[in-house]
Amino acid sequence: MSEFLKVVTVEEALHLMALALPTRDRERIALSNGLGRELAEAVHSPEPIPSFTRSTVDGYAVRAEDTFGCSESLPAFLSYRGEIPMGKTPELIIDPGQCCWIPTGGMMPTGTDAAVMVEYTERLGDDTVLIYKAVGPGDNLMQIGEDAAQGSILLAENHCLRSQDLGLLASAGVEEVNVKHPYRVGIISTGNEIVALGTDPQPGQVRDVNSISLAAAVQAANAIAKTYPIVPDDRDMLSEAVSAACEENDWVLMSGGSSIGVKDMTLEVLMSFPQAQLLFHGVAAKPGKPTMAVKIGSKLVVGLPGHPVSALTMFGVICKPFLDAKLPQRLTATAGANIASQAGRDDYVAVYLEEREGDWIAQPLLGKSGLMTILAQADGYIHIDHQQQGIYCGETVLVTRFD
Amino acid sequence: MSEFLKVVTVEEALHLMALALPTRDRERIALSNGLGRELAEAVHSPEPIPSFTRSTVDGYAVRAEDTFGCSESLPAFLSYRGEIPMGKTPELIIDPGQCCWIPTGGMMPTGTDAAVMVEYTERLGDDTVLIYKAVGPGDNLMQIGEDAAQGSILLAENHCLRSQDLGLLASAGVEEVNVKHPYRVGIISTGNEIVALGTDPQPGQVRDVNSISLAAAVQAANAIAKTYPIVPDDRDMLSEAVSAACEENDWVLMSGGSSIGVKDMTLEVLMSFPQAQLLFHGVAAKPGKPTMAVKIGSKLVVGLPGHPVSALTMFGVICKPFLDAKLPQRLTATAGANIASQAGRDDYVAVYLEEREGDWIAQPLLGKSGLMTILAQADGYIHIDHQQQGIYCGETVLVTRFD
Q: What is the predicted ipTM?
């Protein structure tokens, strides 16, 4: 092995990579292009959510004091003033002793301060509504800004935008966001025996596998892959190829050359660049011992094993965590609270995840049903089967993440 | 509720959906566009893999019988005939008592039938090589077609192409594949109170959230989303919108109208189409009770709840499994065998997953290091920390899936 030998553990390799990450440009994009992108800055709510006081139930808008003391055996009698239309400012003004029909999401009319669910009411002819349950001021309403105050942080810097985050931003009227440019990743396969797909290999030659599988893995990690022509084991050609790929990309992945001597050639070529800085040469991992990383100026060059499974695995271990801000899709966690469930139906409880001593704790989100910020707080949901009565705090649960 | 009422469990809903799935076109695409696509037919290997007999080690190509009986104390003396170059047909012919240097992946020269690892050899001057370990015929070789025979099935119909699958196909010289066309999914938000993003909502109005979040969720599920203008709660306009969306898509997702009466209107409009067939109206699940599905001709229309978190969750439960053939990224499984690991290094063991009584069993893939088919067999890998000595059969492990 060469004079550069610097073998590290995977943990050390990840630490060294984290310190050497290329800087990223930012760009402004429309919300509809935001899936999987990372925020370059926190997004503040340009307006309060909701922007008007809304009912969270189908029922009657009332003055709460008109219902005080009423019960099933002693209903309150209110005079019916009509219906609040969806999507319009109500023209009705409700005086003491009056009420009007309001649908879920409807805007509360002047004079009212609570809503009564339809289940606790009865229409009596055209003019009268009986109220069987008292409500307090604010009951069954979502007040202006209760979900998110104007100017509050909706999503933090570095947050990776999922479908529900885009929904939250849309609800606040955010139409464009500043995001980090995806990493540009150049991919170079090396080796005298490697020929490009589309070329008939002669005896002794094999087709290039790593260019296509690494490009797909890079793409799946929300980064931009660019593949370069195959380079034979030749110092000058290798040097030219690395130079061109560093020019056009943030990262360069090289793979190939598992035979003795060739890996050393790659490293020597990389270290011959004026601003080259060796991060590591050799990782104490299987597969992937010959993995190396060199920083050249602001660019990061990673030498992966030539064998395709090893190359993909080490890409997943060493590179992917830095390219892709997404967490895995489904994971096991520990329930952070008792969660009740009704037998006979399947329940899907939105949860957020906390990391505690290396474990994921799934905490149920039990906000009001109209809250929009739950969109961003929810990391996913847990499924309680229709045969289960609920989940006890401390039980292991499977969390399905939102995209 | 209407005369159509047909409440089902989630399990029944999934079963009814599975029977009503729209048919899918197929298309032929280049391998480089294959990530996440589903194969419309099995792919057979057009040639044997490998296409020539290769060494799997760096060392010496020999006639095995020349090494019989040799040992560390009694080495065999072979005359050195030179080096096999990578990527070329060897011109050397090896006679009894001779050997030549061969790199990993090099093509075995005529006359040889085994390779000896360099660690068990010693060069003595220019002409002689000492062999300290006997090898049998075929040792340290990958024979023609040993990885995959010509005509054998590389990937089955319906398989969802991951990065490693694309690598496998590239290695076999497959340049294009027949895949299913992604589902086209139309998205319609309904409601008098809903206004499009980019419009200033008046008091009582709210911005459309579901169009953007469902479109992103559809996109994340490898399907093609098309959003349509918002439709107010009007029978004729709803009918026109559904008709247009059914024309241009395989699926139509409708969301909105959580207030009493509006859901019934949606269902009545859907059932008024000549070929309408009700799958279910109401699902015994929380959230998502008002979820409904109607088949109209060959198209599938799903009515989702209006509330964004409920809409996304029910989309994930009811629709996503049919749109997206991908399995989740990371999952817990039970080790199907003892897996040894050397302390002091991190091991990443490629595994395939078997489902057994509802559990995932992770079986280690212990093939020869040069096998290409492992690319497709491996569902992912398990990580054995450098402080662990290995994993016992039956232990719980975390499997990180390849993309």
A: 0.79
